[in-house]
Amino acid sequence: MKTEFHRISRLPPYIFEQVNRLKAEARARGEDIIDFGMGNPDMPTPSHIVDKLVETARGPRANRYSASRGIKGLRKAMSAYYLRRFGVQLDPETEVIATLGSKEGFANIAQAITAPGDVVLVPNPAYPIHAFGFILAGAAIRHVPATSPDEFLNRAATAIKHSQPSPLAMVVNYPSNPTAQVVGLDFYREVVALAQRHEMWILSDLAYADTYFDEANPPPSILQVEGARELAIEFQSLSKTYAMPGWRMGFAAGNRTLIAALARIKSYLDYGAYTPIQVAAAAALNGPQNCAREIRATYKSRRDVLVDSMARAGWHIPSPPASMFAWAPIPEAFRELGSMEFAKRLLLEAKVAVSPGVGFGEYGEGYVRIALVENEQRIRQAARNVRRFLDFGRNSRVMEAAK
Q: What class, spelled out in words, does domain 47-286 have in CATH?
């Protein structure tokens, strides 16, 4: 009987599994692990959203199959959000579709538009689904270094020039997971111009659109750029904005051809999210937005505490302008270990879990990702643990050098 399956065999070993296994073993021993690893929001979903879910769930028809594309009221709410937030007018019937989170949306658009052998440009480092969704669909991936937005643009142009066949699509993700980089509309104008010249689709991940810390400069949407709707689709998520990760509610907006392709794939695979969840999601988008501002303020406060307390501990971490992550260079004394070994040592010796940068691609090496999913007291405790860990490591190196 065949036990090697083609699509599964294309996936590399899950690089985070080593850290996850060590974390589970430590907790089984009763150790208190401060977990900055997974980007799993810890704040409660605002009460008015939960109340709407409960109210709708009591209805006699609530438990029937829902709509794969999203109920009409939700798609209207998503369109209204784009008009309010970005000044972009979208048709809720043809330019918006609900997804089971942005991750599912990316995986299914890959299935919808990709033929075996198609080339797709993906930033590196990047959120894993950006590449693996297309790998599962049979595509050939061109990893484009993205240590800065300018580097990504320059290297993308080079990758296109040397790709055969010409790339089908390119992925962009700002605010970035994991690097927390942000871009302005000028960047998106260059992306759109590049895609127009080479007849490529653009897949934009905007899951952190509303998790930003400069109130005067909220992250833009690529759909604000003239011509973008002819070739771009953008994925959003309610997970971070409204602390709804387990609700699995997101959406895609933009090009009608891509939206229709995604809708067709989804029609074969799911009946949509539970209707009360969709109703509650519409209430989140249409309702008072002070809750989103409060969630954003919490992440900003945690960011400031993390950067300040870790600096006092001897670990200098750049302050992220957006997202719920800090992209932290490995302290110089430990750099030769690499991100995986450093993350393992940090977990075992400092009781602090982070994500190794290499898990987001080869250009993530030298960094770890820190998720702002612990409260300020726990962040300060982590910094104290890290300080002892760093001091011991430095002293050990001094003693080793003195031998």
A: alpha beta
